[in-house]
Amino acid sequence: MDEALRSAGWIVVAITLGAYVTFYVANSTLNGHVSTSTPLVVRDVLQRGQHHLYGKILVPSSCDEVSVKTVNTGTNDYELQFTTWVEPEVTCIQAPAERVFDAVIFAPSIGVQFTASIDRVPVPLAVYPVVMN
Fold first, then answer.
1. I need a labelling partner for 101 at 20 to 30 A (CA). Which of 7, 20, 70, 91 fits?
2. What whole-number percentage of the chain has pLDDT above 90?
3. Pairing status of strand 121-123 against strand 64-74
4. pLDDT for residue 32 is more than 70
5. Chain segment 47-79, per-residue pLDDT in tens
6. How many angstroms separate the CA atoms of 81 and 122, rounded?
7. In angstroms, rounded to a whole number, what is the distance separating the alpha carbons of residues 71 and 80?
8. Can you say how many angstroms the Cα of residue 36 is from the centroid of all Cα atoms in its chain?
9. CA 111 – CA 115 distance, rounded (Å)
C-alpha cells in the first residue's frame, strides 16, 4: 500500500511539474509577442501621388535605434516595418526613449491602407492625414 501511494505521489508531482513547464513556455512565447494596445501615431503629409509619413516611436532604452522600411503588401496596401537594434558602445539609460522616423511612399492620394510592425510583431497604427497644396 505504501508503494502505491508513493508511486501516486510521484505521478502527481510529475503532472504538476509538466503543467507548470507547459504554462511557462506558452506564457513566455505568447506574451513575448503581444503588441501594445496604444497605437503608433503617424502623420501622413499628402501630396499628389505621394505620402510622406513621419512620427515618433518609443524604444525601451537610450541605446535602442530604429529603422523603417516600407513594403507594398498588396494593391494600395503598405506596411511600415520597423526594426530595432541596440547601438553598441553607447552609455545606456534604461528608460523609454523616443526615436523619430519618416518614410516616403509613392502611391495614390486616396484609398491607401497602412499597417505596421515592430521587429515583425504587428502593432496598431493611427494615421492622421495632412493635405498639402
1. 91
2. 43
3. unpaired
4. no
5. 888 999 999 999 888 889 999 999 999 888 999
6. 9
7. 7
8. 7
9. 13
For residue 30 the three cell numbers come to: 505568447
Nine-digit cell at 107? 502611391
And the C-alpha cell for 55? 512620427
| Gap between the Cα atoms of 115 and 96, Å rounded | 23
Strand 113-118 to 77-86 pairing: parallel
Question: 17-30 burial by CB neighbour count: b if 16+ within 10 A, else e?
Answer: eeeeeeeeeeeeee
The widest CA-to-CA distance across the chain, in whole angstroms, is: 89
Classify 80 as helix, strand or coil.
strand
Q: pTM for this structure? A: 0.67
Going from the C-alpha of 129 to that of each of 41, 76, 109, 114, the distances in angstroms are 11, 16, 10, 12
The H-or-E segment that residue 115 falls in is strand 113-118
Is pLDDT above 80 for 24?
no
Q: Radius of gyration (Cα) for the chain, nearest Å?
A: 23
Provide the residue type at 1 as one letter: M
**By the 8 A CB rule, do 125 and 39 touch?**
yes
